[in-house]
Design brief:
This protein is mainly α. It has three helices and no strands. It has one domain.
């Protein structure tokens, strides 16, 4: 038989809420791409980017994505 929320003690309700929050935070923090391999084309682009001396400031990045 399932308990109703009204039947829970304060401690039981706190544990239930903590468990729900923990579960949600864990799902938000998971990397959906974990375990996948980068394609060779992407690896090459990353290597090229790292080797490049061209840099963009954080302020410019914010402007480009509309945060400023």
């Amino acid at each position: 038989m399932m308990k109703q929320v009204a039947d829970l003690s304060v401690k039981e309700l706190e544990r239930l809420i903590e468990k729900a929050i923990k579960k949600e935070l864990q799902s938000l923090m998971l990397d959906p791409d974990y375990g996948l391999e980068l394609r060779d084309k992407i690896k090459q682009r990353l290597k090229s980017s790292i080797a490049s001396k061209k840099r963009i400031s954080f302020e410019e990045v914010k402007q480009r994505i509309g945060l400023v």
